[in-house]
Every structure is written in structure tokens, then in C-alpha cells.
Amino acid sequence: MAYTAWIILTASLVGLSCGLIGVFLILRRMAMMADAISHSVLIGIVSAYLITRELSGWHMMVGGMVAGLLTAVLVQWFNSRGVQQEASIGVVFTTLFAIGVIMIATQVGNAHLDVKHALMGEITFVPWDVVQLPWFGSIPEATLILIIVLILVLVAIFTFYKEWKITSFDPMLAASIGIPVVLMHYLFMSLVSITTVAAFDAVGAIMVVAMLITPAAAAYLWTDRLSLMLVLSGTFGVLSAISGYYIAVLLDTSISGSMAFATGIVFMISFLCSPKHGVLAQHYRTT
Questions:
Q1: Is Cell division found in the keyword set (predicted)?
Q2: Distance between CA 26 and CA 22 in Å, rounded?
Q3: Separation between Cα atoms, residue 110 and residue 227, nearest integer Å
């Protein structure tokens, strides 16, 4: 497989996984939790490196997932004690991210792990770090991890589709019919954390936030059906990844930044042209 194809495939896997997860974040009015977790996982990744002194491996996933869950627990704890949710998110993720940055500056040293890498990722390096698989040959490690995570996301959505749908729209109803709302919430937060960590090293925090929020927000403008919203959000994520790559090539600029920019273009097109909520459709209905 060509060098460019691996980059596009890896970014598309990020767009598809984050697009699917992002739908439930939007429906739960927790879009800013994507920003919080995508930044706070840094402290988990750095901690995992300091323990193992290895920059790749499943320990990174575990460290990031623990940090993501810690973020969710702390936000919920502060909110239950009277702090507004938005304020709780802001306080928790900025504090944890700052600790991660300080740990990088003071403890990591010359390892290939820095703040710029955390924010923008290094997707151009993805095709060089490969693993050997029987029958498939060499495949970039980041791509393999993202394929596994995508499968995990799909299995989780199909398994808990009904539970997450009800808890997203009406948590009180879910609790009244016996669905463990708190357990479903933290299970979902675990999935968000895993997806975020898997994408973090390749594309950085900025693109993870963009892919978690913007494709889902665009899909929300096109349909009120959850199943179709999931399909559209995943499609928009992949489309943003592919178009963003070619924008980066055309402008000779950051690939991850261009992909994040492409999600904004998709959202603006949806905002203007969607048949029900679009600005143009509303204008024509009132004239």
C-alpha cells in the first residue's frame, strides 16, 4: 500500500470512529467532554511512558483510558456538588492537561513526546512504524490499533444501542425501566477515552476534538433518526479526512489542521443546505 494511502486510511479510521462516538456526545449535550478528554488523556499517556519508558504499546491505551475516566468522574463529582457542568469541565481538563505539559517539560526529556506533538500529532510518521501480521504483511501500528478500536466501537454501539439511545434522550425513563444509567455513562466515557487515545498519537488533540464534535453536529442538522445520524456522522468524518489531506497537500500545510478545517467546511455546508434546519431552507419557507 502506498505511503499516501496509509495516511488517508489512518485519518479515515479516526474520522469514522470519532464520528460514531460523537453522535452520542452531541445527543447527551456533552460536546465539551470531547475537548476535556482529548486534552486530559495527555497526563495518562505521559504517566504510562514514565512507568514503562516505552512510547508505544497497550500501556498507553490503559493510561489514557484511566485519565479519561478520571476526567469524567471529577467533572461529575464537581457538578454533583453545585459547580456548573461547563465550569467543572473547564477546571478539570485545563488542570489535568497543564499537569501533563509540566510532566513532559520536566520528566520526559529527549523522548519523542512534546506539546506540539500532543496538539497536532505526527500523522506523516504513521506509515514508518509498522508491525508484521500473518497473511497481511506489514501494517502501520497506529492503523492496526485504530482498526481494532473501530471494531470495538461498532460492537459496543450494536450491543448497547437501545440503552445508549434511551439514556441519551431520557435518563429518567431509562432509570425507571431498570437501565443502569450510571454504568452506561461510564462505559460510554471509557469508549470515548479509548477512541481518543487511539487517535491521539497519530493526529493530535485538535483533530480528535474536531472529529468527535463537528461531523456529529453536521449530521444532526440533516436528520432526526439516530441510525441515519450515525451513518452520516461517520461518512462526514471520513470525507473530512480525505478532503483535508488534499487541502494540506495543496496549501503545503499541517495535515491534521487541514482535516480539522475540512470538518468545519462540512458543517458550514450542512448549516446552510440541510433540508430542515439549514439557513437556506428556513429562508425559503418564510418567503
A1: no
A2: 6
A3: 46
Task: Give the count of beta carbons closer than 10 Å to the beta carbon of residue 154.
Answer: 14
Longest dimension (CA), the chain: 65
Q: Give pLDDT tens digits for 131-169.
A: 777 877 788 888 888 899 999 999 999 999 999 899 888
Q: What is the pTM of this model?
A: 0.84
Supply the pLDDT for residue 43.
84
**Which residues, at least 6 apart from 55, have a Cβ–Cβ distance to it below 8 Å?**
49, 111, 112, 113
3-27 and 226-251 helices, crossing angle to 10°: 140
Contact 234, 215 (CB under 8 A): yes
Instruction: List, in order of start, the domains of the chain with CATH numbers.
Output: 3-204 (1.10.3470.10)
Cβ-proximal residues to 22 (8 Å cutoff; 6+ apart), any chain: 31, 34, 211, 212, 213, 214, 215, 216, 217, 233, 237
Cβ contact 78:88 at 8 Å: yes
